[in-house]
Amino acid sequence: MFAMILGISIGAVFAAQTAINAQLRKFVSSPYLASMISFAVGVIFLSITILFSGSPLGIPLNVFLNQPIYIWLGGIIGSIALTINILLFPKLGSVQTAIMPILGMTLMSMLIDQYGWFNSIQYSFGWNRIIGVLLVLLGVFLAVAIQNSQNRLQASQTINEEKLNQWIWRIVGIVAGMLLAIQIAINGQLGKVLQSSSHASLVSFFVGTVTLMMTVAVIDRSYANIKKPLKLSAPWWIWIGGILGGSYILVNVFLVSQIGNGQTVILTLFGQIIGSLIVEQFGLFNSNRNRIRPVQIVGLIVMIVGIFSIRIF
Prior knowledge:
By secondary structure, the chain is mostly helical. It contains eleven helices and no strands. Helix content is 79%, strand content 0%.
């Protein structure tokens, strides 16, 4: 029971992180700078956590020399996915920003399992997975497409163009979910090599931070906006996105060791969906408030059943 509550709770925390980082972007005026700050805070948090555990932060040089280069790219992929989520949130809202990446994660993780990419354990593509994918797609349709159909009678040409743009952003969200699935597989392999999931998470966050620092230098050409939240008396919670992201990783590591990977994925994704519903229903963290329709809740439940079919059976 404790593991179940913890898994659902940390999934909801992940949904809150997306909303917080979206607000941070408003103050720093750049999704790249907002992502960089979140990753940097995550590096500090994970470093302190590892030091308190009594483990060294360093990694033996021979590990760098003897491993394939892709094993170090999880942070780059994660930084891209996080930046996309920050861009998605004001376009799609909390619920859809959770739904579309989950769809992408589900599809890509099945491909990774099927072909054993990134040295992952290979699982065959059976009927249970086909049924699971169909249920996930049906859940997305109920949560997104039917809602659009209900609003179509009121739509003008301008609104229709806006909805087309929304579908473009939804596709981008699916791509972000695919990247997250790749990052998870890479970090899993890195954790085996380093014999420490915490160190693998720290490496991923550190690489992501360096990547985003270079991105900000090239695109924004300045780090000065980091000070803007302080000048504008921004709420304190906009700085904790990285702590929430680091906590999400650490709790996942703990849960996998206690209840296994499949159940951990189910619990955290369920919590992520519940958290996104709460954020959007009540407009938490200064996000746009939108009433959740019953058909959306049904769609989300169908998605969870589909994911359960894919990951457990």
